[in-house]
Amino acid sequence: MAKNLDWPDAPEVARRLHALLPPGLQAAAGGQAAPDPMQHPAVRQTAAKAVAAITGLQQRNAVLGQQLTALQQDKMAESRKLEIDAFKAETSGC
Asked: How far apart are CA 82 and CA 61, in angstroms?
């Protein structure tokens, strides 16, 4: 944009501004597409590992959720049994 302005030395200002851009944006600003980081094998391998780790954590979370639900049901049943036992003790006239 700077090179199209009606300033003295506009092309020089544009060149200097372009030099300040990060390398990926310099290529895009120069008319070339910036390289796709997902095409780099190391990035793809790291992304695949991250996806596998997330999947494993989601599965573990589901198992722990099921275990928690089972424990909560056990505690509720135990609490109900204690209430029944207390009621029986009160009504039997110990």
From this structure: 31
């505690």: which residue's tokens?
A: 75
For the chain, counts of helices (H) and of strands (E): 3, 0
CA distance linking residue 45 with residue 38, whole number of Å: 9
CB atoms within 10 A of CB 81: 10
Angstrom distance (rounded) from CA 37 to CA 24: 10
The residues spanned by each domain of the chain are 1-35, 37-94
Res. 19 pLDDT band, cuts 50 70 90: confident
- The model's pTM: 0.50
